[in-house]
Amino acid sequence: MKTTTFGVDLAKRVFQVHWVDMDTGEINRRQLKREQLVTFFAKQAPALIAMEACGSAHYWARRFASFGHQVRLIAPSFVRPFVKRNKTDVADAQAIWEAAQRPEMRFVAVKSEAQQAVLTLHRVRAQLLKMRRMQINQTHGLLYEFGAAVHRGSHSMSDAARMLGELADALPAMVIDTLREQLQRIEALTRDIRAIEHRLAAWLRQDEGATRLAAIPGVGLLTATAAIATIGEASTFRSGREFAAFLGLVPRQSGTGGRVKLLGISKRGDVYLRTLLIHGARAVLSHPKHLSDALQRLLARRPFNVVVVALANKTARTIWALLAHARTYQSGYVAHAA
């Protein structure tokens, strides 16, 4: 007996399900409420359930897997070509069902609760950093209007507090009080950011894979934990190059008539992890005394930013190799052909 494939269009309250009866060939469409969706799939025989990798997809994937179903998550960009004419919930569910039938379709690994929790910390930290940067820039601008030039960066808040004290007699009290409250908000954001980093560090010490990744040059606390949480399962990618392509660290291609032209990096995939890898590579290259001969030769003939991306690509492949083959990092390791 063949396994039935269900295409589910996720939503907050109203879900759309599409499937085809394997015995009769009848096309079925059904709209279900949130509480009805769980009951519906709990009663079904083990089946293949396909969904878009969107909000709450990993939660529902774990929930359906607990019922004995096989779950496949598909990137929304891979589902879009199968949507016919108008975009509706019915059309989306059918498109998901059709995309799941393709033999070469790429699927997204289902994340565990722990991996989603780590990503939650990263997302909150990134937002707090953005808010702190906005507050600092505004404080610098407001002080500059009164002739106080503060150095750039988050470490200049002590200078800002000192200058604010010097201007206390020259400015209205309401301005001084408001700017002091602004400095207090910046300090509170800094404390919150450090608290999140302490939680990530505690999780890294408990996770064996993240600890192995942290040994790679250019991979620190943020990159190691974000990589573990983003990849999910290393077996999702067939090679390190596929993982690098997933992160957008490979050239875009444009070709016709048998001629292929390589362009800049594609910048597809996870922007956050790609940014961390590039920052890590830039930090490694900023210490030329500790660079390998290969990197020094590459720096001699290629622009600095090109070498940064190349090193980030190599770091991404190394991350995949360590996770896929359960290895530890070895400096100067050379892979041998089978």
List the helices and strands and how they pair.
Layout: E1 5-9, E2 14-20, E3 27-33, H1 34-43, E4 48-52, H2 57-65, E5 70-74, H3 76-79, H4 89-100, H5 113-145, H6 157-166, H7 173-206, H8 208-213, H9 221-231, H10 240-246, E6 251-256, E7 259-265, H11 271-285, H12 293-301, H13 304-324
Parallel strand pairs: 1-4, 4-5
Antiparallel strand pairs: 1-2, 2-3, 6-7
Helix pairs in contact: 5-6, 5-7, 5-9, 6-7, 7-9, 9-11, 10-13, 11-13
Concise structural overview:
This protein is of the alpha/beta class.
List keywords for this structure.
5-stranded mixed beta sheet, globular, two-stranded antiparallel sheet, alpha/beta
> What is the chains' assembly state?
single chain
CA gyration radius, whole angstroms: 25 Å
Distinct helical segment count: 13
Q: Estimate the helix proportion, in percent.
A: 40-55%
Poorly predicted regions: none
As laid out across the biggest beta sheet, the strand order is 3-2-1-4-5
Biggest sheet overview:
5 strands, mixed
Number of domains: 3
Helix and strand composition category: alpha/beta
Strand coverage percent: 5-15%
The overall average pLDDT, rounded, is 89
Terminal CA distance = 40 Å
Shape: globular
Number of strands: 7
Order of helices and strands: EEEHEHEHHHHHHHHEEHHH
Coiled coil: 179-206
Keywords: Coiled coil
Domain Transposase IS110-like N-terminal: 7-145
GO molecular function: DNA binding; transposase activity
